[in-house]
Write a structure and sequence with these properties.
With 250 residues, this protein is of the alpha/beta class. Helix content is 32%, strand content 17%. It contains seven helices and nine strands. The protein has a six-stranded mixed beta sheet with strand order 2-1-3-6-5-7, with helices on both faces. Strands 4-9-8 form a three-stranded mixed beta sheet. Strand 1, helix 1 and strand 2 form a beta-alpha-beta unit. Helix 2 runs antiparallel to helix 5 and helix 5 packs across helix 6. It is globular, with a radius of gyration of 17 Å. The two termini are 30 Å apart.
């Protein structure tokens, strides 16, 4: 049985199922913040030696096992915290619905895990649609969607990289699917994927990704500008429910 912290038990009906990879020690900050926010976290494990392929396979198995309409919020474990005023599972569900209720991935200003052998090539990077903010690129450290839609996206994403994925990271798999499907959808080409399109949280409404040179400064402002237990984003002025500080210095 997978551990749960605060909120309802893993087997009960949920407005939002939050999952993260790691053990209780690694995910201590996430677990503590989730308790304050009234959200349960289900922890998943994978063997580091197996690479991210096992992580992706475990997620796909989980998505397939859940009712198709179940909202799942997947978070990185060690470098993510929830806002105290997230509003519990209902708050997460309402914020996701306000973003369209589709498959929503966090967005970042920096470009990581996109270039190199068996990753997204330069042509695919050029296919990234423009963003209304500095946050243009997909980040897989936080995303949300119904279990059914997430399973279909992941199945389609894996088909695109079949035979070429080194399993070093999962972000390249999602990014490849995002740039491929977005290009087809916006260029009038036929033969687009049958799975849902990924939408990026460009304005950091749900997920704040604090990576890049200004990460430390942004996070400091976020900590200073807390209002009723929540975050105010230093760049977009939004009230994200999740703060993610990936990379070094976290």
């Amino acid at each position: 049985r997978l551990p749960s912290y605060s909120g309802s038990s893993p087997g009960s009906s949920r407005e939002a199922l939050v999952v993260a990879f790691g053990d209780a020690k690694l995910c201590a900050h996430l677990i503590a913040s989730a308790k304050r926010a009234g959200v349960a976290v289900r922890l998943l494990r994978y063997e580091a030696s197996a690479g991210h392929r096992q992580m992706v396979e475990k997620l796909l198995a989980l998505f397939r096992s859940l009712p198709s309409e179940q909202l799942v919020v997947k978070l990185d474990g060690s470098d993510v915290v929830l806002a105290r005023d997230a509003g519990g599972e209902r708050g997460l569900h309402e914020r996701w619905q306000s973003l369209g209720g589709g498959v929503v991935f966090s967005a970042e200003a920096a470009l990581f895990f996109h270039l190199g052998p068996n990753k997204v090539d330069c042509e695919s990077v050029a296919r990234y649609p423009e963003s209304p903010t500095v946050y243009r690129f997909l980040n897989s450290g936080g995303y949300a969607g119904s279990a059914g839609d997430l399973a279909r996206v992941l199945e389609a994403a894996l088909r695109l990289v079949e035979g070429s994925w080194t399993s070093k990271d999962d972000q390249s798999v999602y990014a490849n699917y995002f740039t491929h499907s977005s290009y087809l959808a916006h260029s009038g080409h036929s033969g687009g994927p049958s799975a849902p399109l990924i939408e990026l949280d460009y304005c950091q409404d749900m997920f704040a990704v604090l990576s890049g040179p200004a990460a430390t400064a942004q996070f400091s402002v976020l900590k200073i500008r807390r209002v009723d237990g929540g975050f105010v984003h230093a760049v977009t002025g939004t009230r994200p429910l999740v703060a993610h500080l990936p990379g070094r210095g976290k």
